[in-house]
Design brief:
Blueprint lengths: L4 H32 L7 H8 L6 H6 L4 E6 L6 H4 L4 H11 L3 E7 L5 H4 L8 H16 L6 E5 L5 H10 L6 E3 L11 H12 L5 H11 L11 H11 L15 H16 L10 H4 L2 H13 L6 H11 L6 H8 L16 H7 L1 H11 L21 E5 L2 E5 L24 E6 L2 E6 L9 E9 L2 H9 L7 E5 L4 H4 L8 H9 L4 E5 L12 E6 L16 E5 L4 E4 L3 H6 L18 H6 L9 H6 L2
Parallel strand pairs: 1-2, 1-3, 3-4, 9-10, 10-11, 11-12
Antiparallel strand pairs: 5-6, 7-8, 8-12, 9-13, 13-14
Helix pairs in contact: 5-12, 7-8, 8-15, 9-10, 9-21, 11-14
Organism: Sphingomonas leidyi
Family: Belongs to the IlvD/Edd family.
Pfam families: ILV_EDD_C, ILVD_EDD_N
């Protein structure tokens, strides 16, 4: 199938814009490749230190003839998604031995849970934990005693951070190894309903806690289609997983065999063989565009409007929100997964999952098929579903239709002819909005605004009944420079309640909204942010704000002369406590949301 002309045009735009930086990046990859097989060049004392922690692999490591795989792990047992990694390293060492290789844990990276920190001070560390993870990945791989790497991570900032760090070692072959979602518990819509009842004071804390525990009940990724599970969809589309690895449940034979296959595959794509596939070549401009396409086709997380530009930059590639907006006009919405539907990711996987989406997009000419992947073939391999045939891992073709067309549809009969994102522009700056879960009649909201400095103030005003009207809730000084750009997911229940009461409601913020954001229109990631003079700092209570996803408009309807003359409100002092002061340097040096909100990349000149 011929590639859609607009997708080709956007890809050409990305390639042209990235030309100089991508050329410099590939020169680095080549230079590192030339000097990168360092183990034979290291001193004997250096090697002895590297091998001292292992007994069973020491003789094979000493011989130096086989690949040594570095395992970079985000394991901890406070995150359900990452608790599954506890036994992975010892299993992977066995599977590496089967393939004639060795494996060592190169290092760990931090992995915090936004679900735990939502609405509290720790969330202000969340976005910059991604840069910390990238730096930790670089530390792990800096010993240069590895010829390939397995990256163990799943959730929100962990996968983007791992990819950002890994791409600076672009000469190494690498595979992302997911752990899979927990099995379905309390239905997500029922969970959301109970949260709204609690927000209205109709049920107590005990009932709410019981419901939350019923939803988040075991090891594995949370089952809604938020940032973590959007990560997995994108890694499939970029060819960084074993095909179909995203959503096999933990503790199953299929999950184990997919991980085993990943280790075996790493041993096959090293630089001493004839199928060398370094991550710096796998992640090219087409792979980045593919990531954006599947995000749009599945109604994925708004957080990736920050993460995709960030990890693209780590590979010398520039993609911006206009590219996403253009792609969204031609990429159909093929999936309805909560919060954009009633099904969770297990239902999505049962209906066909990521491989069905990729098959449909490829067949319709809506995705690049001629990309390098870590799989044995090309992107077409990612359009087949992994299954166990007895003890054998096999990949099978999908049928013509999905297993449930209320969850997953073909490209010729989508839920919507367009994807789920729009860009908003106006005298308030540039923002993005996820509309895949918003009813069309709510795409345009025009109402007086109420301005807040943090989400706790919003919740207090809601409880006091001060927001029972048509209102645009504005929450400012939530950008990356101000306080690390926390998610404002705690606002979802009260805003949803106001909308249910019949009011016209919207949110405008220079902060983030979770990948779980749903039915309320939210203009987020507003740039420039309030700190430093962004126009959102001019807004006053009562100003009428117009948000229109149809026309891409975000304006304060204030007389132009008055608007130009109006002063910005004072900047609040930086918060301290919960370690937030330690991240001041990252806040101070980071760039804007559209470029990825990264201090690390900005300071590196990437």
């Amino acid at each position: 199938m011929t590639l859609h002309s607009e997708i080709a045009a956007v890809t050409d735009r990305v390639i042209e814009r990235s030309k100089a930086r991508r050329r410099a990046y590939l020169a680095l990859v080549d230079a590192e490749r030339e000097s990168g097989n360092d183990r034979p060049k290291l001193g004997c004392a250096n090697l002895a230190h590297a091998y001292a922690g292992t007994d069973e692999q020491r003789d094979q490591l000493k011989a130096g003839h086989s690949m040594n795989i570095g395992i970079v792990t985000a394991y901890n047992d406070m995150l359900s998604a990452h608790a599954v990694y506890y036994r992975y390293p010892e299993q992977m060492k066995v599977w590496a031995h089967e393939a004639g290789a060795t494996a060592q844990v190169a290092g760990g990276v931090p992995a915090m849970c936004d679900g735990v920190t939502q609405g509290y001070q720790g969330m202000e560390l969340s976005l910059f934990s991604r840069d910390t993870i990238a730096l930790s990945t670089a530390v792990a791989l800096s010993h240069r005693t590895f010829e390939g790497a397995a990256l163990l991570g799943i959730c929100d900032k962990i996968v983007p951070g791992l990819v950002m760090g890994a791409l600076r070692f672009g000469h190494l072959p690498m595979v992302l190894v997911p752990g899979g979602p927990m099995r379905s518990g309390l239905a997500n819509k029922e969970k959301a309903k109970i949260r709204e009842l609690y927000a209205e004071g109709k049920i107590g804390r005990d009932e709410l806690l019981d419901a939350e525990i019923a939803a988040y009940h075991s090891k594995g990724t949370c089952t809604f289609y938020g940032t973590a599970n959007s990560n997995q969809m994108m890694m499939e589309a970029m060819g960084l997983h074993m095909p179909g690895a995203a959503f096999a449940n933990p503790g199953t034979k299929l999950r184990q065999e997919l991980t085993r296959a990943a280790v075996h595959r790493l041993a096959e794509i090293g630089w001493n063989g004839d199928d060398y596939r370094p991550i710096g070549h796998v992640v090219d401009e087409k792979a980045i565009v593919n990531a954006a396409i599947v995000l749009l086709a599945t109604g994925g997380s708004t957080n990736h409007l920050i993460h995709v530009p960030a990890f693209a930059r780590a590979a010398g590639i520039t993609i911006d929100w206009d590219d996403f907006d253009r792609l969204s006009r031609v990429v159909p919405l093929l999936a309805r997964v909560y919060p954009n539907g009633s099904a969770d990711v297990n239902g999505f996987e049962d209906a066909g999952g990521p491989s069905f989406v990729i098959r449909e997009l490829l067949d319709a000419g809506l995705m690049h098929g001629d990309t390098l992947t870590v799989g044995k073939g090309g992107m077409a391999d990612y359009g087949r579903k992994p299954e166990m045939a007895g003890d054998q891992l096999v990949w099978t073709e999908h049928g013509a239709r999905s297993g449930d067309d209320t969850i997953l549809r073909t490209a010729d009969a989508p839920f919507s002819p367009e994807g789920g994102f729009r860009i908003l522009k106006g005298n308030l700056g540039r923002a993005c909005i996820k509309v895949s879960a918003v009813e069309r009649e709510r795409w345009t909201i025009e109402a007086p605004c109420r301005v807040f400095q943090d989400q706790a103030e919003v919740q207090a005003a809601f409880k006091a009944g001060e927001l029972d009207r048509d209102v645009v809730v504005v929450v400012r000084f939530q950008g990356p420079k101000a306080n690390g750009m926390p998610e404002l997911h705690k606002l979802t229940p009260p805003l949803g309640v106001l909308q249910n009461r019949g009011f016209k409601v919207a949110l405008v913020t220079d902060g983030r909204m979770s990948g779980a954001s749903g039915k309320v229109p939210c203009a987020i990631h507003l740039s420039p942010e309030a700190l430093g003079g962004g126009p959102i700092a001019k807004l006053r209570d009562g100003d009428v704000v117009r948000l229109c996803a149809e026309t891409g408009e975000l304006n304060a309807l204030v007389d132009a002369a008055e608007w130009d003359a109006r002063a910005h409100v004072p900047t609040p002092p930086p918060a301290i406590g919960t370690g937030r002061e330690l991240f001041a340097m990252l806040r101070h040096h980071c760039d804007e949301a559209e470029r990825g909100a990264s201090a690390m990349l900005a300071e590196a000149g990437l």
